[in-house]
Amino acid sequence: MSNRTRIDDFISGVASPDVLNQNWEDFWADHPVPPSAILTDLVVWVPLFAVERMSLTETYRMPPVGSAGLRAAVGNSDDKVLLSGLLIGELRFAWKQRLELLADFSRRGGSFGMLSGGATNGLFLVTKMAVKLDMQVTSLTFTASAQRRDALEVSIGLQHVPRPGMQHLLVDAGAAAASTTLEFL
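The structure assignment produced for this chain is given below.
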């Protein structure tokens, strides 16, 4: 069976029902097209293959005029991500359940937060535009329509809530360097 046939079967909803129980290697063997985004807490993961729109909003706060040069080490920006896309195929309802589970996990720190002793909390968002740690789900919207019977439209609102410090800046710099390097290979 060719890779193209597997992709067509996956999109049309004929993918095998045991995909949920596969490990990463088996999953990528069955789905050779990389997803546009992955949302994970390292235990539960959801690949988003059909992301129609992603917006990253960074809002910066300016210090008061005349403030001292030394301030507490707190973040000076609010990063929000809005993803709009489709959950396609027969696994769309399973991925919907996983997204709801991830939304709940993000509020509790996620599984990696427990493993890291709280050094990193929340979810990981991996896209070509940005790799963000410490994301929390702020909104989930699912829409079903007659035009797309084999798909669920999903809109995911995420907010970056890093701990004070330099960790998230180092991760952003490393992700930018890696994605730039991969772009030119």
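Interim note for the steering committee: The two ends are 29 Å apart (CA to CA). The chain has five helices and seven strands.
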